[in-house]
């Protein structure tokens, strides 16, 4: 029988996920550029005992277009680095998981591995990582190492675009593999630290990764000792078959984007089938559904807020995930229905920050607890423990005397 307790996460992005959120938010428009903003948001999520927060990032400015700048000056542009934000917040929190986003298309996996491993040490085992494929030509233009065609969502089915997407995810797979090998390149007991004998490290317990592929050649070992979790949690956002396979091979948590309960059931079935197809050997993926949420005391009030935001935006807002507009009680009904469809939790995207996050933590979470769908507090341990994921053995571990 499946565990009835949901996993709950919130996705933090600027002043909210709606492009016009800054005009309705009660916060100062400059707030996302200051550490206290992020500390307050993550602290609020931790007070509600949420499993984790994700922090959005990209390598180009926000835009309403699929690729490139849109020329708008009436919406938020610019953000802080997600990994650095997570590192700043880590010492101010005790239990909640911290999952920053980084690009794997234009970022060296060695740098990512050391940064996320450091975050895991700083947080005491609460780090995660969301690798993101950068398919936009505008992002590639910042680096000058490759020339990508303009991203056109209407042509994703064409053979040339399909090959490009396949290559980008194959590169992402190699990047995650390199990062994971580097996390294992120090065995847990590699550091001896024995002052009387003068032995600080056991060199036999440091390992070369010796990875050579189409995009990367990385010798290793890492410069950072093995993270407290062994392997920090890898979480990916996916929408279709090729990314499902990437998640099944390389991730621990997958964020999916169903449109309703029936679609959620179909997506879960496809993810599980993909795990079998690729021969996944680790624990099953934790499947969390993404949902952009705008909440108010009554459905009518919530709809009025949505209408006002869309008017400022100049069109009805649509994202890659489904949008919910209504009361906390209605949202709880929806989450319970999708849970019965097989998803194990949710990553909620607050439309306006901090407003919708406050409603999530003060109204939605207590209502879920009343139904027995969410725990009352933190059980302790690492982020892997919280998600029910075992600590992996080190792939390079050898038995024998030191």
From TrEMBL:
Keyword Flavoprotein: yes
The entry's keywords: Flavoprotein, FMN, Monooxygenase, Oxidoreductase
Listed name of the protein: Flavin-dependent oxidoreductase, luciferase family (Includes alkanesulfonate monooxygenase SsuD and methylene tetrahydromethanopterin reductase)
Signal peptide from the UniProt entry: none
Region named Disordered: 128-154
Residues noted as binding FMN in the record, renumbered to the chain: 57, 101, 240
Composition skew (Basic and acidic residues), residue ranges: 136-149
Species this protein is from: Micromonospora matsumotoense
């Amino acid at each position: 029988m499946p565990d009835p307790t949901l996993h709950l996460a919130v996705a933090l992005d600027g002043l909210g996920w709606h492009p016009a959120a800054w005009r309705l938010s009660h916060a100062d428009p400059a707030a996302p550029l200051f550490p206290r903003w992020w500390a307050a948001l993550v602290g609020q999520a931790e007070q509600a005992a949420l499993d984790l927060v994700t922090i959005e990032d990209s390598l180009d400015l926000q835009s309403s277009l699929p690729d490139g700048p849109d020329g708008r000056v009436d919406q938020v542009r610019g953000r802080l680095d997600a990994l650095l934000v997570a590192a700043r917040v880590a010492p101010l929190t005790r239990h909640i998981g911290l999952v920053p986003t980084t690009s794997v298309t234009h970022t060296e996996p060695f740098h990512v591995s050391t940064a996320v491993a450091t975050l895991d040490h700083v947080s005491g085992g609460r780090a995660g990582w969301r690798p993101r494929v950068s398919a936009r030509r505008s992002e590639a233009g910042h680096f000058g190492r490759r020339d990508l065609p303009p991203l056109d969502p209407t042509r994703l089915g064409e053979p040339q675009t399909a090959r490009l997407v396949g290559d980008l995810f194959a590169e992402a797979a190699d990047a995650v593999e390199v990062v994971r090998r580097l996390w294992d390149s120090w065995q847990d007991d590699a550091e001896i630290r024995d002052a009387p004998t003068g032995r600080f490290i056991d060199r036999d317990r440091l390992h070369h990764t010796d990875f050579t592929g189409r995009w990367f050649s990385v010798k290793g070992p890492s410069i950072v000792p093995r993270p407290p979790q062994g392997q920090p949690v890898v979480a990916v956002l996916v929408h279709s078959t090729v990314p499902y396979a990437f998640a099944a091979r390389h991730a621990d948590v997958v964020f999916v984007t169903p449109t309703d309960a029936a679609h959620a059931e179909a997506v879960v079935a496809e993810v599980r089938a993909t795990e079998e197809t690729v021969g996944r050997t680790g624990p099953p993926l934790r499947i969390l559904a993404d949902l952009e949420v705008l909440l108010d005391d009554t459905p009518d009030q919530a709809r009025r807020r949505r209408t006002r935001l869309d008017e400022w935006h100049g069109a009805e807002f649509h994202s890659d995930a489904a949008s919910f507009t209504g009361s906390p009680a209605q949202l709880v009904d929806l989450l319970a229905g999708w849970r019965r469809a097989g998803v194990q939790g949710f990553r909620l995207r607050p439309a306006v920050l901090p407003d919708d996050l406050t409603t999530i933590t003060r109204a939605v979470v207590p209502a879920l607890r009343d139904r027995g769908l969410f725990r009352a507090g933190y059980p302790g341990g690492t982020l892997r423990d919280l998600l029910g994921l075992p600590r992996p053995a080190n792939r390079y571990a050898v038995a024998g005397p030191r």
